[in-house]
Amino acid sequence: MKDTYTLPSAADMHVHLRNAPGPIASLVTPTIRPAGIDTVFVMPNLAPVPVTSVNAALEYKSALEAIDPSVNYLMSLYLHSSITPEEITKAKNAGIAGVKAYPKGATTNSQWGVVSFEPFDEVLKAMEREGVVLNLHGEVPSDSKEGVTVMNAESRFLPTLRSLVGKYPKLKIVLEHCTTGEAVEAVREFEENVVGTITAHHLSLLVDDWSANVHHYCKPSAKSPEDRRALLQAVVSSKGKFFLGTDSAPHDISSKKGKGNTAAGVFTQPYALGYVLKALEEGIARGDISDSDVTDEALAGFFSGYGRKFYGLPPSDKKILLKRDGATVQESLKSEQAEIVPYRAGEKIWSVEWL
């Protein structure tokens, strides 16, 4: 790998910014653009009320723009029983980019989520007709009776993905935050209207890492060395089937280290591109990928071009400069109301400069 890369500005097609206005959004949102990212696809799983209407999505967007108006926020709706085909048409006209489906009970704020896709048939047909993206959290809930744990929850979801593709063949679908070789192969089975996002942290983490460190715990969870290798290879050979969606998920430190179960989520927003490049470096050292795989074209596509094209956006005309070991990850982001610990805190990381 080179010591510097000059690339188009990045698009992160899966971010969690939390309620805005709010203490976490106020800390996290200003870190997007300094990370070399000017476009983000914002998740709708807010609490206590998820984003289930166009009006709510537009209000949320305005609140984020009040924090940092220099970022292009692509908004989404939460797939919910209250959503109608008419709301999908309204969403398309309002520029809402997608509808996120959370299996009920599978992850953070998924208590309002989907048990079956059958009741949403007319909504999904409207999405297929209007070109609105279906964003899938690709897991089934853990179930000891059925033998489902965090380690096989994604694999168990793949028949549902195949069923949806078969029933709605022109529906644009994103299998979000792929974590397994099986998921990568599943995405590759289908036409160009079915793609996957890959996070920064899943390119380096393994199950042993999150089982020992609460700041590495997320849903879906990191898996095996073989799965990590498949993700790294998908990044450098994407050709449009995979692009960056960090699933950066900030939680106050009290939710990570307080009483009760730890919150699921890894916070990567401020150093997202650097984490990916660091993971590629480490992958080369292990022999998971070769140095020649990491081309400017592959990086530009994964970070920027492929995601923008899938969502119907023009290519970026802005440039960023990334430098090896040019920055150090902060120990935490703090305000009077919140403290968030970023991934790989204290480590050297690639820096980003706008050109």
From TrEMBL:
Its cofactor is Zn(2+). Keywords: Hydrolase, Metal-binding, Pyrimidine biosynthesis, Zinc. One of its GO terms (biological process) is pyrimidine nucleotide biosynthetic process. Its EC number is 3.5.2.3. Pathway: Pyrimidine metabolism; UMP biosynthesis via de novo pathway; (S)-dihydroorotate from bicarbonate: step 3/3. Belongs to the metallo-dependent hydrolases superfamily. DHOase family. Class II DHOase subfamily. This is dihydroorotase. It comes from Apiosordaria backusii.
